[in-house]
Design a protein that fits this description.
The chain has one domain: NADH:ubiquinone/plastoquinone oxidoreductase, chain 3 (Methane Monooxygenase Hydroxylase, Chain G, domain 1, Up-down Bundle). It is mainly alpha-helical and 118 residues long. It contains 4 helices and 2 strands; from the N terminus they run ααββαα.
Length: 118
Amino acid sequence: MLENYLPIMVFIFLGIAFGIGPILIGYLLGPSKPYADKKSQFECGFPAFDDSRMYFNVRYYLVAILFILFDLEVAFVFPWAVVQSELGWFGFIAMSIFLLLLVVGFIFEWKKGALEWE
């Protein structure tokens, strides 16, 4: 019974070793000469000039979430395109409804002004 799970356990062990191994090697063999400039916080190459808990506009997050949402939904079109000829009219109508809902959602967000920065 154990021989059935042995390849899985070896695979899990190797995955953990390949993930943690380079980190440990870098920590043990890498040079460590910390000083004040190295330990200071940088934001895009500039010293931090404000509190890290400052207010960010919600629109930034909204645009990012909408991008991810529409990007992932468009990813569903590619598998459909591969098997479209096998699905026939049912697949075509189902994907047309899906794309129609996607376009209606995009137009709704556009009209609400969710895609504008200012």
